[in-house]
Amino acid sequence: MRQALLHNVIWFAVFLTVPGAMGLLGAYLLSQVRRFQMLFRAIYFIPYVVASVVNAAVWKMLLSPTSGIGHLLGIEQSWLGDPSTSLLSVNFVVDWHFWGFLAVIFLAAMQGVDPSLYDAAKVDGAGAWQQYRHITLPGIRPTMVFIVLMTVIWTLKAFDYIFIMTEGGPAGSSEVVATLMYKQAFNEYSAGYAAALGLSMTLVTAVILAVYQWMRKKGWEDA
């Protein structure tokens, strides 16, 4: 349980930073596009609308040491079969799946920022980075806080990609609480332990939601 929970924490740290940073960058680049922006939005969104089972199956073949991309390039590395890389390899696939979705969400938030603020900043001599740092990021702060909340929830229920690609292995190196709960319930037939794990995750989620609601009432996300 401790090992699985630690893997959830690692998953959260990577899942929050990598696709979040890519989403912010992608949204900024999209905001600079004046022609065919809707086309680029659709292209960004394609990985997210493809079923996770299909994505996981395709990437499992691509990361195969015998027939994947590494084999074609002469890199003999078992990304999913190595305990030191299995968790991060699956997380990489999930990051690829989600970053376009985050980019579109952040772009929608950026388009809601008052354009007059940018005009005033240009008059004051602010560069593109200064405008992004002092106008764009504060302007989309509520959306960013919401994404952090959703990332926590997505992390706690991470299951499909891990189960399809590694089943929590090898040697439990990619095991998270959700896969551990599944194995306890359906492989070990330990329904009581599995139910305790599920209830614990439910309580953790409830606490996180309560903290988020408290922060909203205090106006923290708009500060």
Detailed description of the structure:
- By secondary structure, this protein is mostly helical.
- The protein has a single domain, classed as MetI-like (MetI-like fold, Orthogonal Bundle), CATH 1.10.3720.
- The protein contains eleven helices and no strands.
- The radius of gyration is 20 Å and the shape is globular.
Instruction: Predict the CATH topology.
Output: MetI-like fold
Highest-level CATH class: Mainly Alpha
Number of domains: 1
Q: What is the CA-CA span between the terminal residues? A: 38 Å
Radius of gyration (Å): 20 Å
User: Mean pLDDT, rounded to whole units?
Assistant: 89
Q: Find the CATH superfamily.
A: MetI-like
What is the strand tally?
A: 0
Q: State the low-pLDDT regions, or none.
A: none
Q: In percent, how much strand structure appears in the residues? A: under 5%
Give the ordered list of helices and strands. Answer: HHHHHHHHHHH
- Count of individual helical segments: 11
Shape: globular
CATH architecture group name:
Orthogonal Bundle
Helix-strand makeup class: mainly alpha
The helical percent reads over 70%
Main sheet overview: none
In brief:
The mean pLDDT is 89. The chain is built from eleven helices and no strands. The protein has helices at residues 2-31, 37-49, 52-62, 69-72, 86-110, 115-123, 128-139, 141-156, 160-165, 177-186, 191-217.
Secondary-structure blueprint of this entry?
Elements: H1 2-31, H2 37-49, H3 52-62, H4 69-72, H5 86-110, H6 115-123, H7 128-139, H8 141-156, H9 160-165, H10 177-186, H11 191-217
Helix pairs in contact: 1-5, 1-8, 2-5, 8-11, 10-11
